[in-house]
């Protein structure tokens, strides 16, 4: 099967791959999935930093990346995503300081 990336960008509204033993990093190309409103990749082995391109997902309402090996800072741009209703990033290895998560409250 050959995937047409233009069609995938145009039609993919939700991606749920929880508990699939996925590893590696989130690619910056994830920001090209312009119709994505639900992204759930919980309980995998995804590592590395959150790509800044996540903030390009303007329709994203649900972001579930909990229980992975993600690290680095949590992007402040995520807090500016106007449609985001639920974000789950717990049980990762993110860098935290007392000022970083002020936008979550």
Class based on secondary structure composition and strand pairing = mainly beta
Give the SSE order as H and E letters: HEEEEEEEE
Distance between the termini: 44 Å
Helix content: under 10%
The fold-level CATH name is: Leucine-rich repeat, LRR (right-handed beta-alpha superhelix)
Total number of strands: 8
| Sheet of most strands | 4 strands, parallel
Strand order of the largest sheet: 1-3-5-7
Report the C-alpha radius of gyration, rounded. Answer: 14 Å
Low-pLDDT residue spans: 99-105
Mean pLDDT: 86
CATH class: Alpha Beta
Explain what you see.
This protein has one domain (5-104): Leucine-rich repeat, LRR (right-handed beta-alpha superhelix), CATH 3.80.10. The chain has 1 helix and 8 strands. The protein has one helix at residues 5-11; strands spanning 14-16, 23-25, 38-40, 45-48, 62-64, 69-72, 86-88, 93-94. The strands form 2 sheets. A 4-stranded parallel beta sheet has the order 1-3-5-7, with no helix packed on it. The longest helix has 7 residues, at 5-11. The chain is globular and about 35 Å long.
Write the layout of secondary structure elements.
Blueprint: H1 5-11, E1 14-16, E2 23-25, E3 38-40, E4 45-48, E5 62-64, E6 69-72, E7 86-88, E8 93-94
Parallel strand pairs: 1-3, 2-4, 3-5, 4-6, 5-7, 6-8
Kindly list the characteristics that best describe this protein.
single chain, 105 residues, mainly beta, Leucine-rich repeat, LRR (right-handed beta-alpha superhelix), 4-stranded parallel β-sheet, 1 helix, 7% helix, globular, disordered C terminus
């Amino acid at each position: 099967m050959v995937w047409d990336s233009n069609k995938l960008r145009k039609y993919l509204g939700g991606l749920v791959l929880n508990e699939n033993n996925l590893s590696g990093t989130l690619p910056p190309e994830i920001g090209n999935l312009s119709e994505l409103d639900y992204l759930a990749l919980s309980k995998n082995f995804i590592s590395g930093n959150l790509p800044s391109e996540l903030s390009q997902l303007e329709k994203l309402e649900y972001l579930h990346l909990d229980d992975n090996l993600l690290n680095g800072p949590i992007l402040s741009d995520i807090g500016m995503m106007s449609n985001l209703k639920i974000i789950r990033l717990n049980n990762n290895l993110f860098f935290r300081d007392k000022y970083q998560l002020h936008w979550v409250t």
